[in-house]
């Protein structure tokens, strides 16, 4: 690229300022987080802000969340920009001067930043419809933290007809002004599993008179660790974690019931399928060997998040005109934005939100996302929207 071409690219790029209005919006949202599928006041507040800027709200059947739309001055494809809106059941200990006022609920994943960034992009796009060749749908999605919000949006028909979806997530491992985007896996596929063991309880002094479940449960939990260590390539990340165990409540009684639950995370579909098969074999064969009954659930509810190859290359080309392009550091956390892949093409990016040594991670009571993340994320939304619309209409 010549110097003249680079200067033209920088001129053409959208640069959205961190205005006093956006700062105030971020603080209002941060002070009033709401749990998944209970974001009633959040939805009302977003509606009022969008309407004040002359942005059309679309009717939808969902109780929380909302969808708005910006019609461009020129005909073209339809795309969606998505931000998640729910908080977490966390007691905030961030030290921010505008902490949560809803006791026991916190925007500990930075969704207040996401909403504010999408609003910033929406304000700019609504004021520059002459640059839009197509239609942009703004999706403020509920219940990402439950992994069910994207599916609710899809089932409501709210992304029908969209040719692509664009999303972001703040990431405290990167500094403000940094954007990580590409076509390799970004966030993991997620599984919830649960096992319930059914045996014959007995007196602890006479274990031979029952078929207590404790030994079987211990064997299963240990054997599940071999799924990763003995079945999957060390070059393919896979996690199987037992996170909760229950059984018995009296010291001298062998219980009749016990169980455990946990999660698996993976980046490659074949690894998720292999883990499911080995999980089934271990649970069923161990229960049979101990002579007890078992029922289980392997809920592979969230696919890995991977951007569309062509859209990712497009983003990697335009990001340097307004931000520092960084390599992707994959996350074992899940993101239900991946669910939209069942209906359309995806583009997703990590936006730097802190980057200070030792800063708290997402979902921590001490998590601090900096205001300076907002303009970079807004720039990504707006620039990507224009670039993807132009790409899709060619």
Automatic annotation (TrEMBL):
Is Manganese one of the keywords?
Answer: yes
Ordered alphabetically, the record's keywords are: Hydrolase, Manganese, Metal-binding
Give any single GO term for biological process: diaminopimelate biosynthetic process
Organism in which the protein naturally occurs:
Bifidobacterium canis
Keyword hit for Metal-binding: yes
This protein is called N-acyl-L-amino acid amidohydrolase
Source domain of life is Bacteria
Stored PANTHER family = METALLOPEPTIDASE, PUTATIVE (AFU_ORTHOLOGUE AFUA_6G09600)-RELATED, PEPTIDASE M20 FAMILY MEMBER
Q: Which cofactor does it need?
A: Mn(2+)
Which residues of the sequence carry a binding annotation for Mn(2+)?
A: 109, 111, 145, 169, 363
Query: What molecular function terms (GO) are annotated for this protein?
Result: metal ion binding; N-acetyldiaminopimelate deacetylase activity
Q: Which NCBIfam families match?
A: amidohydrolases
Give me the comment on cofactor binding: The Mn(2+) ion enhances activity.
- Which ranges carry the Peptidase M20 dimerisation domain? 189-289
């Amino acid at each position: 690229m010549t110097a003249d071409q680079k200067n033209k690219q920088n001129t053409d790029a959208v640069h959205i300022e961190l205005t006093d209005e956006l700062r105030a919006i971020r603080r209002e949202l941060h002070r009033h987080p709401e749990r998944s599928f209970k974001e009633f006041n959040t939805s009302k507040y977003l509606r009022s802000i969008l309407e004040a800027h002359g942005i059309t709200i679309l009717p939808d059947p969902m109780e929380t969340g909302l969808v708005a739309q910006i019609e461009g001055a020129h005909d073209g494809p339809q795309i969606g920009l998505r931000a998640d809106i729910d908080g977490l059941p966390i007691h905030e200990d961030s030290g921010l001067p505008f902490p949560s006022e809803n006791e026991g609920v916190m925007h500990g994943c930075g969704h207040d930043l996401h909403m504010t960034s999408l609003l910033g992009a929406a304000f700019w796009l609504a004021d520059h419809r002459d640059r839009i060749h197509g239609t942009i749908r703004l999706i403020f999605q509920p219940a990402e933290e439950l992994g069910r919000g994207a599916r609710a949006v899809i089932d409501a028909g709210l992304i029908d007809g969209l040719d692509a979806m664009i999303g972001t997530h703040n990431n405290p491992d990167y500094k403000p002004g940094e954007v990580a985007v590409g076509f390799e896996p970004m966030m993991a596929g997620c599984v919830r599993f649960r096992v319930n063991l059914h045996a014959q309880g007995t007196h602890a002094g006479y274990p031979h008179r029952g078929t207590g479940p404790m030994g079987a449960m211990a064997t299963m939990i240990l054997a599940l660790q071999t799924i990763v260590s003995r079945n999957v390539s060390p070059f393919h990340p896979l996690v199987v974690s037992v996170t909760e165990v229950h059984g018995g409540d009296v010291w001298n009684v062998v219980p009749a019931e016990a169980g455990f639950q946990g999660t698996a995370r993976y980046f490659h579909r074949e690894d998720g399928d292999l883990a499911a098969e080995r999980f089934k074999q271990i649970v069923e064969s161990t229960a049979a060997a101990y002579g007890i009954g078992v029922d289980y659930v392997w809920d592979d509810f969230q696919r890995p998040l991977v951007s569309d190859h062509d859209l990712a290359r497009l983003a990697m080309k335009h990001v340097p005109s307004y931000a520092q392009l960084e390599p992707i550091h994959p996350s074992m956390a899940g993101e239900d934005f991946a669910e939209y892949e069942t209906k359309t093409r995806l583009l997703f990016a990590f936006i730097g939100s802190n980057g200070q040594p030792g800063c708290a991670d997402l979902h921590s009571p001490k998590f601090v996302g900096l205001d300076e993340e907002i303009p970079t994320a807004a720039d990504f939304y707006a620039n990507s929207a224009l670039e993807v619309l132009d790409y899709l209409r060619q």
